[in-house]
What does this fold into?
Amino acid sequence: MSALIECVPNFSEGRDRAVLEDIAAAIASAPSARVLEIDADPFAHRAVITCFAPPEAIVEAAARGVAQAVTTLDMRQHHGVHPRLGAADVLPFVPWQGVTMHDAVLAAQALGERVGALGVPGWFYGAAATAAHRRLLHEVRRGEWEGLAEKLLREPPDFGPNTPHPTAGGAAIGARDVLIAFNLCLSTQDVRVARRLARSLRELAGGLPAVRAIGWWHEGYGCAQVSTNLVDWRVTPPHVVVERLKVLAAELGLEVTGAELIGLLPLGALQAAADFYAPDAPDADARLHAAVGGLGLSQIRPFYPRSKVIEWALGGLEPL
It folds into this structure.
């Protein structure tokens, strides 16, 4: 079994596909690196690029992507609804196969040196955090791009200078487990309602464990969304979030009208949804149809399981 680390860099660009293709090409130019997907949202003005490589190559792949982003993206022109620190905003390393979290932390630390050398400051988060309060990404990103200069005066960075890069801002580099980014559309245009529902889901507000959530307006779908990060899908898998939000929305006379997956998800999460929505399904195709339908993943945009499930996208044949 070959060793693999996943890296899921988030870039503050969601509208210029050519720019994103150049960043992805830079990542893929590292030996043994594979880019599985570019998931861009023009309304959040943000893209997630999913890549895998052996431990000895993953840092080089990520560093090449960051270098390309630093030369092409300008935060002074960036406006979007998603929180962000900089052009190469978040760079998490995820142990996938034949490696440990310690290996992911070492990768994060090595990338920090490379990013800092580009003049981009920032902090480590998750398992790579150098301070307890910075384990949580939202704490690292607090103040965002607009407040970065002031934040750096209060809190010296883990890497890079004490001032923001003039066009690329800063970055958060981390090590974490697999995360599922999962956004749910509501039958309302009222962002205040989405924020209220997000607060009810959020672990830190007494909601579902291992769930982060915010509410925002999505211009492309013409509705308010609850955007969630499931930081441990084994504790709270996507179908639990869907069913809980349906109940909370119904109490307000609303519906969950569909969902979108940002990036990829592990096969186990889809299997858990199939077990919930179709425990007696006669075959794998029926299980897949029930899982995708139950999660609402085919309601607002096309969903292609073979490219959106990590194991299948890597070429695996594991059954649903």
About this structure: Residues 239 and 276 are 8 Å apart (CA to CA).
